[in-house]
Amino acid sequence: MWKDQLLAQELMKERTQLQDRYTIYETLELDIKDTISLIELAELENDNNFIAEGKKNLENLYTIVKKTELETLLSGEADSNDCYLEINAGAGGTESQDWAQMILRMYSRWAEKKQYKISIIDENQGEETGIKSICIRIGGVNAYGWLKTESGVHRLVRISPFDSQSRRHTSFASVWVYPVIDDNIEINIEEKDLRIDTYRASGAGGQHVNRTDSAVRITHLPTNIVVQCQNNRSQHQNKAEVYKMLRAKLYELELSKKEIQKNETESSKTEIGWGHQIRSYVLQPYQLVKDLRTNKESSNFQAILDGDIDIFLEESLANKII
């Protein structure tokens, strides 16, 4: 460990994660035992108020236990990793681009509540408002594990604020989540399978970014996977980041293949892939957010858009949807 700092960092990270999980277990066990003991004492003294308070504490602890139990399902090969999250607006111009921006805000707020770190990798802004596409990196323990079920198409139904006749519009945006992987994982990428393009970066970044062909796009021809980056000032930095993203996407593709093969005999399994609609957000004629895979619903539309999406993430984990 003294000779290999990277190994030391990885071991300390794993140690911290294990210690945190064990501490949670110990704390819950102690709280439950203490609460039960207090209720028993209150029953001996016929103190109904204290009994009611103790039972309420037990109910709160049960909620925490169930959530902690869900976290034990985050034991997949890459669940503990950071993740990349891509959002692409569907057809429909301004309306869909605004919807893509709303989705970005939803995930950003969720990540902030988890105290995860967010960084923009690539962004393509809309002509009038919103975004055409964006790729962000979300950093934090189990970021990929929590968000891995979010890949798919998200549908919005509302009265469009961009329609002068106030008509109802349906908009679509696609989301793709894949894990950030470290250099120890071997992913075979051959140069002959790649098409590398450079272009002038757009959007924020200063005069230097916009004057030089610093942005890099790589197409992996066998899989038709496309990755691009323009957030760094130099082409070299962007190319290095794009290679990381490509390795991550190819790794996620292999994980998905393994999981599909593993579950192909389960008749109740719902395959969630690129281009599949997973959630519907309806604002008109009523307010309802519904996950089409688990049938989980919420009428608190604003809270969902403010990042309170754990009810859907937890339900997906509980149903082992990938």
What labels describe this entry?
322 residues; alpha+beta; Double Stranded RNA Binding Domain; three-stranded antiparallel β-sheet; 23% strand
Q: What order do the helices and strands come in, and which of them pair?
A:
Layout: H1 5-44, H2 48-71, E1 83-89, H3 94-113, E2 117-125, E3 131-139, H4 143-147, E4 152-159, E5 168-179, E6 194-199, H5 206-211, E7 215-220, E8 225-229, H6 235-262, E9 277-282, E10 288-291, E11 297-298, H7 301-305, H8 310-318
Parallel strand pairs: 4-9
Antiparallel strand pairs: 1-3, 1-5, 2-3, 4-5, 6-7, 7-8, 9-10, 10-11
C-alpha Rg (nearest Å):
23 Å
Write down the overall mean pLDDT.
84
Q: Which strand order does the major sheet show?
A: 2-3-1-5-4-9-10-11
Distance between the first and last residues' Cα: 36 Å
Number of domains: 3
Summarize the helix and strand pattern as letters. Answer: HHEHEEHEEEHEEHEEEHH
CATH fold node name of the largest domain: Alpha-Beta Plaits
Q: How would you describe this protein?
A:
With 322 residues, the chain is α+β, with helices and mostly antiparallel strands. A hairpin with a 5-residue loop joins strand 2 and strand 3 (131-139). It folds into three domains: 5-71; 83-179 and 273-318, Alpha-Beta Plaits (2-Layer Sandwich); 191-260, 2-Layer Sandwich (Double Stranded RNA Binding Domain), CATH 3.30.160.20. It has helices at 5-44, 48-71, 94-113, 143-147, 206-211, 235-262, 301-305, 310-318, and strands spanning 83-89, 117-125, 131-139, 152-159, 168-179, 194-199, 215-220, 225-229, 277-282, 288-291, 297-298. It is flat and about 80 Å long. The two termini are 36 Å apart.
